[in-house]
From TrEMBL, chain A:
Gene source species: Chelatococcus asaccharovorans
Protein name per Swiss-Prot or TrEMBL: Polar amino acid transport system permease protein
Keywords assigned: Cell membrane, Membrane, Transmembrane, Transmembrane helix, Transport
Example of a GO MF term: transmembrane transporter activity
Similarity comment text for this entry: Belongs to the binding-protein-dependent transport system permease family. HisMQ subfamily.
From TrEMBL, chain B:
Keywords, in A-Z order: ATP-binding, Nucleotide-binding, Transport
Family: Belongs to the ABC transporter superfamily.
Protein name listed in UniProt: Amino acid ABC transporter ATP-binding protein (PAAT family)
Gene source species: Chelatococcus asaccharovorans
UniProt GO molecular function: ABC-type amino acid transporter activity; ATP binding; ATP hydrolysis activity
Claim: Lyase is one of the keywords in the record: no
CDD domains: ABC_HisP_GlnQ
ABC transporter domain segment(s): 6-240
DNA damage recorded as keyword: no
Pfam family, one: ABC_tran
SMART domains with a match to the protein in the record: AAA
PANTHER family associated with the record: AMINO ACID IMPORT ATP-BINDING PROTEIN, PHOSPHONATES IMPORT ATP-BINDING PROTEIN PHNC
Length: 217, 245
């Protein structure tokens, strides 16, 4: 017999949502740190570093996230790292996010007009200072909409972790759906949860764009 | 006051196969004001950009402010600390106010505190007559005001040489005058200036020497009166007939 769909199920799914947010948070933070390093390396003078970053980006962007997850999940065990699967998966999401954020931010850095670099250099500012005070602040404004867009996508993509048995929101929904046989109700609930997490980010993006935009028209 | 600010000997530069600068010999003394002119594509912008290492030269010798500019990071950094440059497109930092634009290099390169840098910036912004606009962002200023802020930004580093790369070419005609007036004031204070410009009236008024370039080479060097009234080369006379109408 099927169970009726009750609040208990919803609370169970809320627990899944907690894991989803946790996964996404690690991926956002890890991906942002690795992504910013990757972006800076991509515009560095050293061709060896530049090409290594490019190769990494090619490989990660060219493989499906699902495959990356399988590799991380089984790979972590195979090389004998004794971590919780959810951590291995969060790390895999970070690597995945880094490849995309690195490219978004490289593009943003390079789309700051060349004259800004020349202006900084003519004043005697070092490469690091020119980046920190002149180029990156302008790149951030350019990068905000695509970055937030990618963050939203990343949160939703954490649902893929369900296939390797991580009990996050989508996995809990599957479980509840199997038990209650009310897939529409259950997945609508899940969709609402995802929306509640993602929508504020979209609002934040608009707010940031407006705020950063006031300085420069 | 006979210190050499610029000493170029046999300077050559190529953009792949294209020979942009051909055996340039140029000497500029401290306090001298030199106007570089010539038809577009003659290499005058490239030459002035070589003087602070924005372009690297490939042959010959170049010394700026007594520092041998050898295309090494270190020599370029030293030269840039002692030269100021004003660009055709201003290149102000759009995310900073006028005064912040003038403070960043004094703080980061000369190590001044915020207060000291602000005082320096305000002094130079007053000198270029934009003291009422110091808290505005570049986008809120007219082209002429932006260029004057850019001049103040360069001056705030107390450079030994000021380089101007077509500073009025991107301006609306009614704003050219105010920028040229500012530059004339700076010239009258004894600053060493090298200026790429098509403003022949300005050249006549402030230049000690006019250097005429064509096809990557210096064709003629003369005091302005002589250059404008009795230029020796046909190429210069042809150029003058174009710009003087």
């Amino acid at each position: 017999m099927f169970q009726p769909y009750t609040w208990n199920h919803v609370f169970f799914m809320l627990g899944g949502l907690g894991t989803t947010i946790w996964l996404a948070a690690i991926a956002l933070v890890g991906g942002s740190i690795a992504g910013s390093i990757l972006a800076l390396v991509r515009v560095a003078h050293n061709p060896l570093l530049r090409n290594a970053a490019r190769l990494y980006i090619f490989v990660v962007q060219g493989t499906p996230l699902l495959v990356t997850l399988f590799i991380a999940y089984f790979g972590a065990r195979w090389i004998g790292i004794d971590v919780a699967p959810v951590v291995a998966i969060a790390v895999a999401f970070s690597f995945y996010a880094a490849a995309f954020l690195g490219e978004i931010w490289r593009g943003a850095i390079e789309s700051v007009p060349h004259g800004q670099r020349e202006g900084s250099h003519a004043l005697g500012l070092s490469y690091a200072d020119a980046m920190r005070f002149i180029i990156v602040p302008q790149a951030i404004r350019i990068a905000t909409p695509p970055t937030v867009g990618f963050f939203v996508q990343l949160i939703k993509n954490t649902s893929l972790a369900s296939v390797v048995g991580i009990v996050e929101l989508t996995r809990t929904s599957q479980i509840v759906s199997n038990a209650t046989f009310k897939p529409l109700d259950v997945y609508l609930t899940a969709a609402t949860f995802y929306f509640v997490v993602c929508f504020p980010l979209t609002l934040l993006s608009r707010y940031l764009e407006r705020r950063l935009g006031t300085q420069t028209k | 006051m006979t210190e050499m600010m610029i000493e170029a000997a046999g300077l050559n530069k190529y953009f792949s196969d294209f020979h942009v600068l051909r055996n340039i010999d140029l000497q500029v003394k401290s306090g001298e004001r030199v106007v570089l002119c010539g038809p577009s594509g003659s290499g005058k912008s490239t030459l002035i950009r070589c003087l602070n290492g924005l372009e690297l030269h490939q042959g010959g010798k170049l010394a700026v402010c007594g520092i041998a500019l050898t295309n090494t990071r270190r020599s370029i950094d030293l030269v840039r600390r002692r030269t100021g440059m004003v660009f055709q497109n201003f290149n102000l930092f759009p995310h900073m106010t006028a005064v912040e634009n003038c403070m960043i290099a004094p703080m980061r390169v000369r190590g001044l505190t915020r207060e000291e840098a602000r005082a320096v910036a305000e002094t130079y912004l007053r000198r270029v007559h934009v003291e009422d606009q110091i808290n505005k962002y570049p986008a809120q200023l007219s082209g002429g005001q932006q260029q004057r802020v850019a001049i103040a930004r360069a001056l705030a580093m107390s450079p030994d040489v000021m380089l101007f790369d077509e500073p009025t070419s991107a301006l609306d005609p009614e704003m050219v005058g105010e920028v040229l007036d500012t530059m004339t004031e700076i010239a009258s204070e004894g600053t060493t200036m090298i200026c790429v410009t098509h403003e022949m009236g300005f050249a006549r008024k402030i230049a000690d020497r006019v250097v005429f370039m064509d096809a990557g080479a210096i064709v003629e060097t003369a005091p302005p009166e002589e250059f404008f009234t009795q230029s020796r080369t046909p190429r210069a006379r042809e150029f003058l007939s174009w710009v003087m109408h």
